[in-house]
Amino acid sequence: MSNSLQALSAHLTGALASKLLKAEIALNELTVEIAPQDLIEVSTFLRDDEACSFEQLTDVCGVDYLSYGDSEWDVGGSGFTRGVKREFSFDDSELDADKPEFEGKRFAVVSHLLSVKNNQRIRVKTFCDDNEFPLIDSVTEIWSSANWFEREAFDLFGIMFNGHPDLRRILTDYGFSGHPFRKDFPLIGQVEMRYDEEQERVVYEPVSIESRTLVPRIIREDGRFTRDAENEANNTNEVEK
């Protein structure tokens, strides 16, 4: 564990007191969690404090904790497989009924900061209070580079940023419905587009393909890899003799 990260964590704990909900060092990285109402004040402190000097924001991303910890991956005798079971259907008419009610705060905004002066990085995590209408303050007035990052989080996760100067979609089409990175959004999307020769324009229609596992499940029962490993071991033993 880096001594500089320990010193930075201790400094933030003392300076921010109750505004710092959590500070954790893992994998040689420092992550701090703050309440949404303290985001602007803490962000300004991280930029202006001499011991911090996080003058550069390198990334802002959204996180959806709806199915955090769940996985379709299974480890068996044949290795890793995917698609062993699906907990709910992506049929829009059945989605709400099949999806269990989420407990806790679902959406978080994570900012990655860099101090060129001190050669340090820090990750700042803030959870949105409202799961139905996730809203958090924009930090564009503190770091101008947050502008497009926050637009991306809005577009893909539906997180709103209060005070953003131009909050509109940045990756999907302007008429797009929904937010693709939400874990209750169908993997195949909701509409498909094609060029209609009669109307001489692009038209949008409901998707005509069925939901499917995108990574194939392949289990080889012929033992080809086991035989190859045994032959290689035998050849090695003969060379050593």
In short:
By secondary structure, this protein is of the alpha+beta class. Helices cover 25% and strands 26% of the residues.
Shape label: flat
Q: Helical proportion? A: 10-25%
Strand content: 25-35%
If you consult CATH, what is the topology of the domain at 3-66 and 107-177? Beta Polymerase, domain 2
Order the strands across the largest sheet as they lie in space.
Answer: 1-2-7-6-3
User: How many strands in all?
Assistant: 11
Characterize the largest beta sheet: strand count, sense, and whether it forms a barrel: 5 strands, mixed
Proper CATH architecture of the domain at 3-66 and 107-177: 2-Layer Sandwich
User: What is the number of helical segments per DSSP (H or I, 4+ residues)?
Assistant: 5
Residue stretches low in confidence (pLDDT < 50, at least 5 long) are 84-97
CATH class descriptor name of the domain at 3-66 and 107-177: Alpha Beta
- Briefly note the structural class of the backbone: alpha+beta
**Cα Rg:** 24 Å
Query: Going by CATH, what is the homologous superfamily of the domain at 3-66 and 107-177?
Result: NADH:ubiquinone oxidoreductase Nqo5 subunit
Distance between the termini: 46 Å
The average pLDDT score comes to 83
Query: SSE string, helix = H, strand = E?
Result: HEEHEEEHEEEHEEEH
